[in-house]
Each structure stands twice: as C-alpha cells, then as structure tokens.
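User: Please predict structures.

Assistant: First:
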Amino acid sequence: MQRGMKAAVQIRRAHRIAVLPGDGIGPEVMENCLEVLDKAGFKAEYTHCDIGWEFWKAEGNALPDRTLAQLCKEKNDAGLFAAITSKPAFEAAKELCEELKPTGIKYTSPIVRMRQELNLRTNFRPCRAIRNNPRNYRDDIDWAIFRENTEGMYGGVEFHPLPRTVFDALDQAHPKMKKFEKFGLENIAMSTRIMTRQGCENIIRDAFEYAKKHNRKSVTVVDKPNVLRETGGLMIQTARRVAEEYKGIPLQETNIDAQCMFMLRQPQAYDVIVAENMFGDIISDLAAEMVGGLGFAPSANIGDSFSIFEPSHGSAPGYVGTGNANPIAMIRTAVLMLESLGENEIAQRITNAVESVVESREVATRDFGGTANRHELTKAIISYL
C-alpha cells in the first residue's frame, strides 16, 4: 500500500497555470513571483497569455480571444495576472493603430471583461499587516474584504451621449428624469448602478461563510442606503436576511463615507467587510494603504468554475525599468492561488519567508523604507524558504 501511495504522489500532474503578465510593472513583478514559486517547489505548467495595452493598440482588443480561451478549467487550473494599463475611452481611441481608428472600436478594461464574461463574481482582498512594516497604520490590522465583482457601478451599462430612447423610457418611469432634458442629451453622460438580489446574496453569503470557517468575529456590510435607496436598500435587506442563517456572527451596517472614517478611528472594530463593486474597490484600497500600501495587497477573483488571482495595484508605468517595483503583492497573490489549489504547505512557507523579510527590515524596497531593488528583495525572500 505504501508503494502504491508513493507512486500516486510521483505521477501527480503539475498544475496548469495561465500566466497573464500584462504591461507596466506587471511583467517585472510576475518574473519575481514565478522565481519564488519555483524555488518554493511549486510544480506547474505555465501558459503565457497576451493581455494589455499593446494588444489594444495593435489589435483593438486588450484581451484577445486566444487569451480568453485559455481561462477555463479545461485548459488551466487557475489564472495568475499581474497588472495592466487602463485609460478612459477617449484616450484609448487616440492610441489605436491608424488602420483601426476608423472602425469605432471602443476600449473596455480587460480585467472587468474577465470578471464579467467568466462570472468571477467574488473579489476577495485580505488586508493583513505584517509586523514591523514602517508603512503600517497599526500592526494588528487583519481585515478580509469581499467585493461584488460583476455588478454595481462597474457593471458597464453606460451612455454618452444619452440616447433618446433611453431618456424617454426613464422619463416615463421616474419623475426626476425630466429636469435633465434641458441640458441636451448630447451633454448627458450616464453610468448605471445595477444590482441584483442574487448578486447581493452571493457576495454576502461568501463573507459570512468565510467568517464562519475562519472564526471571525463579525461581518460589516458597507453601502449608502440613505441616499442610494433602491440599490443600497437591496444590499442591506439582503444582508439582514442572510445574517439570520448565521446567528453566531454579528452583522454591522455602515455607510461608505462613515466606514472610511471608522476604519481610521477604530480599525480593531472590524473584521470581515463586504460591499458592492465600487464601494468595495474604495474600501479595499484604503485598507491596503493601512497595511503597507498596494505593494502588499493581494486579491483573488473567484468564480464557480475558474479563478484569477491578481495584486490590487495597477501597472505603475513610472516604476517600469527602475527596479523599484515591490513584488510582495504579486507574491502574496500567488499564495492565495496556492491555497485555492490545495498547496497549503508551499503557501505557508512563502508566507513565512515574506513576513520574515519584512519584519527584519534588513532588505526593503523604497515603498517601505529601504533602498533594495525588486531582485534583491526577491533574493532575500528566497533565502528564507
């Protein structure tokens, strides 16, 4: 039996990972991340996929179909994504190659497309401070933030100018629409905040299930129902209903503006935090800054059949080629991926190594008080493996 078990371990296949370096500092931090994974003993077959600004300019598609086809369980076990440049549509149109400019192609964010087209409905952003990081607001902050990933203000239903058919329909449905007509429909831009009961319930249930599994003390739902009465009201009502199924976990309710203040005033009062798309984005960036900055902030885009893991930071074009990009957020993101794949031992060793380096303060990039470059920081992390 022991021989059979040993043979089973030996023939276990390597994980299949779709690697999406992107642009800006994306390829740089991805390089360091893959080096750490390799030195930690993670066995994987990597498929490098095209994504980012250069593909928008050359092909009119920042997320080519050939890349989208790789993001499924049939081809890969998970996606590991670094960073991409994203610009307003009017700026993006100017940067298209000349032959594509007359086509009228409109830019859409690749990460938003992936979240929506692959139904990566849950964005999980753990924000836990590493002790002795000089950038920490406090060393004892440990929040788990759940952000709805496919609906809300980032749902993508927008208009400019406002079509007459849309205006007329809204004018018939709501008395407050009429007053905007005097400005001219060509001068009106509209972004919608569409939320469904199912979307609210999914993200809230995810938050409560996490709190239950990890013995967390509370769940706080963040919105603005006193002003956004219909969408915010739906979020709060759904949270109260779901909370009834989790009697041992208190539910707190706060408004988005007050919550930002409360997180600074009483960070220890919060544990698991859940919000719709835009509010979750805002809260998690504030939280990241309080635990060292975006250079320390990982995240996961989780779907029912596939997940893509990405650091919370952007492409930071000003850092490209300087060596100053901090790869820790990318490495911590890979830890989330490892945990999802059941590679908990490797994940813990990498976590311990990262925390040992940060706590020692012997090697640090400029964003947390040092002079080391990304390669030196990576080498230090590997030395603790």
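Second:
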Amino acid sequence: MICTKLLQKITTTTPKPSHPPPRPPAANAAAPPPSCSPPPIYRPIRAPAINLPPSNNSIILAPVPQAKTVPPISPPFHFQPPSKRIQTPDDLRRFHDSDSGKHFLGFVVALSQSIHSNKISDPCHESPVTASIVSILETLIQWVHEIPPTQQAARYGNVSYRVWHDRLVQNSPDLMLKFLPPHLQPSTVEIVPYFTDSFGNPSRIDYGTGHETNFAAWLYCLARMEVIKEEDYPAVVARVFVKYLELMRKLQLVYCLEPAGSHGVWGLDDYHFLQFIFRSSQLIDHKHMKPKSIHNDDILENFSNEYMYLSGVAFVKKEYRSKVEVGALSNSLPSVVGGGASTVRSLSDELR
C-alpha cells in the first residue's frame, strides 16, 4: 500500500543543554516576548509514537489468511453472466470483508497448502477433469503455433494475438463441455467469461495479475460446483497451473503482451503473482533450498523445472534481463527475492 507522507505537528519539550544553565533573570526583568518560544518540531505521522515505551510489537501486521473449505452450490441452479461489481476502493473493501472474498482467498491458500514441500514432478492424484483441463491448455498452446505473429514495428502488442483470442472466445463454450457433467452444462454462461478473461485483454493486448486472478476465479467456480474436489488440489497446482504458466509465457513472448500495470522495481514479475505464493509452500522445510537460492545460477538451471519459484525467477532473468539489471534483484520485493527471510515468513507476507 502506498502511503501519502502527511506531516503531523508534534510539540516536544526542549532538550536539556549540555553547558551550564544561564543565571536566572532579575526579579524586575521583563519576560521574553512570545515570539522567542522555540518553534514546534514536525515529525512524520508514520514515525513511532513518542509517548509509547519502546516495544518490538508496536507494528501490528494483518492476519495471515487461512485455508477454507469451498462451500458447494446447491440446486436449483440459477446461472447468469457475471458483471463487474468492483468499481471503487469501497467496493473492493466490501469484497474483502464478504464471505465470498474470504472463501475465494481461502481457496487460494488451500491450493498453496496442497503442494507443501512437493516438487512439480511428484506423483499426485489426477482426475479426468484435471487431465481434461490440461489438455485444453495444450490445445491453446497449439493455437499459438498455428497463428504466427505479424511483422510489425511496434515493440508491444502484436495484432495476431487478437486472432488467437477470437478463436478462444468462439471455442470456449465447447471446451467447457469436455469436462462438465450434463446437469452443469448450463453453467457455461457464467464460467466462460472468467475463462476467456484469464489470458489477457484483446483490445489493449496486455496481460497482468488481474487476468491471472480470473483464472483462479474460474477454478474456484469449478470447485464450488464440485467439478474440482479437494483431492484434486495438488494436480490443480502442479499440473493445471503449471501448464497455464507455460501457455501465458508463450503468449507473452510470441505476441509481446504488454504488462497490464507495472509494479516497477518492487515487482519482480509484472505478469504473475500466484506462482510466488505456491512456490513458498513448495520450499517449506526444504533442507537445502532457501529463498536466497535464486542468486545461484546453477540452482536455477538445474531445479527450475521442479519449483515454480525458481522457474519464475529464471524466466524473468532470461527474458527480461534488461529490467533485472536496471532494478537489481536485491531491490525487488524482499519476500520474493529472498533477502534472508525464511520460506514460511515469505509465504505469510505474500498471502497478506
């Protein structure tokens, strides 16, 4: 959160001088004019309160979100096209405080916990639904090969992406029918918009963490319909989300998608964030891998295919080396690049 540095006027007592005090004035001496009083001392409002005793607990952190069981929907079903409800900061605050917002965040935490100390290649339960979703994402990757980028002078935003996205919109309802049971097929009117908004904006030809959140919201909808169950969570992260990252990185490179809002030096990856939440769970209790391991190129090369954290950093360093050199990794988000903090603390910071 960016805080505006307001100034608060705080008047303090004048410190005692180190030299001997002056002689007291004579009884009939005139009092000094009011203008001779010392000026007030200004302190920033973000400074520690001067009237409180020193304490290491003076900074109160937001509670760490906890995993929650996804509440299933019950018949009769009333599916309807989603509409944008969050328009203002107050709307966003109400969403965070609502049951829907808390359960959605709890779902993300539950996904993260499902791969606690696991590598991507570790065996896990793969249901027909998760296998079908992976197959759909592979189809979308194949479309990228079939729709080559247009030769153009612009650095960002290759117009061929719009052709790819149009094919996505046209085929998405049929893609959903590959894994939806018959009684839930009417839900396409509600879940397809989340799915099509998960891969970027065709007008601006950009992609960012908001689109990534749409993909998580689409998975959450499937979980509410019990198409995805809790035993599927490890495969949702290690198979589905990993394949989603592969697709999005290909789209970013082939069609030069512009970041949908850069975080500057404080954001290591302008496109993704969930991978850094999931990676923390992967590395918890690891005997040798620590957050600072990203500074070792040999570790990145040999283990990036097993850990999303290392994969994300390796991709950024390889494809966006100019940004990494200008805004060095040590200046980026400390919980992401590993300035010595533990993996457990990194996960807590990112979930907040």
